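Quick question about two entries, pasted in order.
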Amino acid sequence: GQTYNSYSIIGKLIKIEKFEVAQYDFPNRMNWKDAKAECAKLGKGWRLPTKDELNVMYKNKKKIDGFANNYYWSSTELDSLNAWFLYFNDGYLYYFNKYLTLYVRAVRAF
């Protein structure tokens, strides 16, 4: 079951460029489809970041804070099987099968 509510994920909003970032990661790593669904469940326009937004988040990771030195999903698809993710240790973008379970941080445009 869910061990979090939307407030415990959103927390104190961090504004970067044209979007705002939830304060916390989801507690569980998720596959791409679940990651998209869980972000949307936060309501009011929350979603997975695009790969460009993830890149901005990486460049501002000290300001945003709380990231694991790990892999985070983006909403950007390569094709029907694969999507892009960013490694928060070195800022490198990769793509892989959407069944991979990775970390998730939600964003929304403002």
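Here is the second entry:
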Amino acid sequence: ARPDRVVQFYESHGYDFIVFTDHNVVTWRPSNSAMMVFGGVEISQNARACGRPAREKGWCLAHVNALFVDNYRGHIGVSARQPSRNRMELYQRALNITRDLGGVAQLNHPNFNRTADADVIAGLADQGLPLFEIHNHVVDDRPTPAPSLEAMWDSALSAGHRLYGVASDDAHDFDAPRGQRRRWNGNFSFVMVRACRERASVRDAMLGGRFYSSTGVVLDEADARDGALRVRVNDAGTGDYAIEFVGSGGVVLGRAEGREASYAIERLPRGGYVRAIVTGPHGIRAWVQPVWRD
């Protein structure tokens, strides 16, 4: 779809901001009074082999978003097919390009063709990766034998990495017939940030984990205050909700039925973390970022 059509689509669905992430080209459109529009690019590197387990088939798809790239236009000079057969070299190259562009790096769909795993994610976090995709409906709705994205997230968090999970649209088609949704449509996933309507504020909120990610759950509260991680759902309807608190090793620390729950941070060991998952009607979810007991 044309960039102007994409902006119009998300504006009509009530979004406050979007970041364009086309493959290997920085796309940008001016913001308007209703929508903040930020430049970005998906650094897409595909290789026939990259050191995965021998049983894995298909191309290695090392894809990294560079978000908030507003001082560059056009192609970034990366071939879609790269000669390297080392996953970390491919991803490290993408992180270097992101830094050169002044962007914020987000590891995309780690389970896509099993290109990334827990060790790769931890290695990239060592190199300063702040964000990774905890949900992409195009990829994550497919059955896979791989460890779940949440298991890989908890592995990185348990090793001491401060890494935040993003739910994002993998949207290519914005003109589906009325009443019909396709795999590549938009408005499946979003983030809600605690920020002012300014570029720097939104960027800083993403880097600092001051946001939650969702496939439809809207929260009134997702915050660490008064010594606890507190979650409250914004829904006056009759839908059922479950809130889980997860800590080191992916252990479920607590679970509550309803629209509101909290977990005392003092219950964590020093250096431990807690994050929350909210599950609502028809399987919609929200992921609240981890907080740590220092």
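Reply: The first helix runs from residue 3 to 12. The chain has a mean pLDDT of 91. Hope that helps.
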